[in-house]
Amino acid sequence: MKTDRVFGRKEFNWFGEPAAWAADGDVLDVVTDGKTDFWRETHYGFIRDNGHFLGFATGDAFMAQLRVQANFEELYDQAGLMVRVDERNWIKAGIEFSDGQAMLSSVLTREQSDWATAPYLGNAADFWLRVTVKAGVLRLQVSADGKTWPLVRLAPFPIASRYWVGPMCCTPERAGLKVRFSEFLLGAPLDRDLHDLT
């Protein structure tokens, strides 16, 4: 069942709307289309901008967090959060299946994409992400329980008057990854110390 409200909000924009998705209250269910991805140039030489991303508009500073549930099984299966200025400036982060296991992954793109991965020690089928953007700095955190938030990445990020942020998922090698997104929060930056894990 598609709806005009997702996470209780009417103002959202699909970038690469999937054929199959449904929203009910605080839950968004997505089934990925085939050969979907976000990537720009590095190593592979190609540009992909057809992944699934549900964007909510923000001002020039914000915090967003999200719970993600999925069974990652095929190469490059991925789901998590995305922050986007435009097609050349964005970050996607979450779990991505690579080298036979679910990895904590982030791709920061400023004209060209980078890719950072690490083994994820929590339950990759059920995790939380938080991203904070303020004054040209992006802070990315992950949580296994929605309570403790270790740092994943701290990076410079383009300053803009508006960003898009929200759930992201892609399957470059197949179709049919089922992803459940829930507990989406979007608000002002938390302004906590870098080593404050709450």
UniProtKB/TrEMBL annotation:
SUPFAM superfamilies tied to this protein = Concanavalin A-like lectins/glucanases
Looking up InterPro entries in the UniProt record yields: ConA-like_dom_sf (IPR013320), DUF1349 (IPR009784), UCP022704 (IPR015987)
Q: What is this protein called?
A: DUF1349 domain-containing protein
Tell me what organism the protein belongs to: Rhizobium oryzicola
